[in-house]
Amino acid sequence: MLLSYCTNVHPAEDLDGVIDQLVRYASPVRAASGRDELGVGLWLPAGLAHRLDRSPADRERLRAVLAEHRLVVHTLNAFPYGGFHDDVVKLAVYSPTWAERARLDHVLACARVLADLLPDGVDGSISTLPLAWRAPWTPADDDEATRAFASLSAELRTLAARTGRVVRVAIEPEPGCVLDTVDDVVAWLAPRTAPDRPDDVRIDPEHVGVCLDICHLAVSFADPAGAVARITEAGLRVVKVQASAALHVADPSDPTARAAVGRFAEQRYLHQTRELTPGGAVLAADDLPLALDGTLPGRGPWRVHFHVPLHHEPAAPLGSTTHVLPQAVAAVAAAPHGDEAHLDVETYTWSVLPPDVLPDGTDELVAGIAAELRWAAEHLLDAVTTTERSAA
Questions:
Q1: CATH, range 2-245+321-391
Q2: 221, 272, 348, 382: which has the fewest Cβ within 10 Å?
Q3: Beta-carbon neighbour count of residue 135 at 10 Å?
Q4: What's the average model confidence in pLDDT over 40-47?
């Protein structure tokens, strides 16, 4: 697996800003994490993706900076379309949807740019949203999304034939969306990959697969091995794994725990919260403040969609779901094409952490991201290597 960290933690949305991010953050992170070369999972908002797509000179400028600082790009994040660091993002991150042409155009621009940036002999991956937020979503929207992904498949095949570079797009299930869970994305995607479907509504499983965000998986209280098995049994592949951890609240009826998790309720991002009942059902609240206001009864443990740094264990009585990560990565590694999956550390929430753990300036943020990468290398990549040796 190739390891990278996702640059959507940084706010810039133009080329000068992205280059400044690479110099100011990514290059020092590479040095601090002890890596001779560092993967960066670039977030390319739509405006920048289209600019780079149109301009070979701009791509060459970006490529030169990457090479100078020993940074490589094999994956892109095309989930946020733009404005990901606005004061309030919340539901806006799911627009435009896959029923709108702008979403397809954004991802295609990203694919063409990525094909030009890829190192020789390496396939590329792009993560994207699970169609839309669950409402409003109509059968007509679903038909448009199906046709969009069929068109995407055809364009990616053409791109591979023209450039010799394979780029795959990975649909990332997320709580609250049309494709909420792994089971949802499998149920939606697998029938549409059937070889007997007409070309205009057939999605090619060689070029479209699944992005497994481990925070989302954990929030859903899903079994990692079972989730990966359902993906592979459906003839799909895990294209990308986003290494991320959720908040865990063992006893949300405890006033101390409620006060502690309440410190993570903030206004920029949506923090979907799920409760596991004693009977095994999963109850849902669309945001943490709603859960705290009584949408969830608080009789079972909560998991909160708040990406906490991988190496950081929240202070008691809170916890995190980092224990899910090695299980999920090992399951992916053992699956067909699992060794080709990309592993991207995606903690975009550094800027909205509670004050006592909020990084104080550039140096602390660099140190934090580097610590995450060292954690991922030790607990995920090394664990995969050990498993592979044992199997051999």
A1: 3.20.20.150
A2: 382
A3: 8
A4: 98
